[in-house]
Amino acid sequence: MSADTIQDARRQIEICNACRYCEGYCAVFPAMTRQKAFADGDITQLANLCHNCRGCYYACQYTEPHEFALNLPKALAEVRQDSWQDFAWPPQFGKAFHTSGVAITVLIVLCFSLLFALSRTVMPVGGEGFYATLSHSMMVAIFMPAFLLPLGSLAISLRRYWQHVNGGRLTMTAVKAAFVDAGRMKNLSGGHGEGCNFEDEDRFTKLRKIGHQLTMWGFLLCFAATSSGTILHYGFDIKAPYSLISLPKLFGVTGGIMLTLGTLKLAWLKTNADRNLGDTRVWGGEMAFVLLLCAVAVTGLGLYAATGSTLVPALLATHLGTVLAFFLLMPFSKMAHGFYRLTALIADKTR
């Protein structure tokens, strides 16, 4: 992490800690008031507790043109982004995505979509539904390592983070409390429960919280659809395609709709918010990832709608390409923020 970035964040945090006007806004400020001096690990922990709602900036009397020139959301966003890059494993991938996230995302999606499209011409397939286009064994051979390896990478990254911030000894009480706060999106509710003013100084709304909740629960439902399909396939020998009233379809269609609406809402809010209150270096990469997640949902819904038509091979190749890109980029892209913030909440609860 840049020493200048850490030092500027420390300067601003010390001023905020003396003022304490924003004490009830989010988890950052109560955590800040527990100490008077801040090591590098403390700054990193506070940065990852921050959800960039920007309420503290709009309430602050020390922003420009005041000589203190505070911009705490931006300072913490830069520290947070640097921490994700530095703790990422392998570190080279983290640095590459940090500087060229959009190009990497587009290139991976196009390459894998083309690869899946060409695979039909060189490999025999058999089965019903999507398996008539790409065999079940081939899907498992490709996606199992593509799912497990990024999770392993994230585990290494989070362990590095935990050691850096001196997270302490894990307790089930702390873990449970952190999951409750994360599930409720407590830190996106604002200090008075009115929501945040992420996109407008004078307008408090819960739109960002709703967008995050739709995205999170939509993603979890899509994951539940895949998991239930796996259980049906291997546990009960019930193979795809599944009917609309089956668990995979009920979870998948509902989750796909929620994920689409959530990511579109987040993308719209991002275009309306002040870029200078976040890390401007990675605005494009963050937007690319939100749209990639949206593309996963849209192509999945489109694939289901096109079942039985001649569009299935092309749509399946595109959908699998976006899904594979999503998994492979998970430890290095904006998706990592969910894991880091949950870990930061757990570390906060242990204290």
UniProtKB/TrEMBL annotation:
Keyword field contains Transmembrane helix: yes
Keyword Transmembrane (UniProt): yes
The name this protein goes by in its record: Tricarballylate utilization 4Fe-4S protein TcuB
SUPFAM superfamilies: 4Fe-4S ferredoxins, Respiratory nitrate reductase 1 gamma chain
Native source organism of the sequence: Halocynthiibacter styelae
Chain segments annotated as transmembrane: 96-118, 138-158, 214-236, 248-268, 288-306, 312-332
Keywords, ordered alphabetically: Membrane, Transmembrane, Transmembrane helix
Record InterPro entries: Citrate_utilization_prot_B (IPR012830), NarG-like_sf (IPR036197)
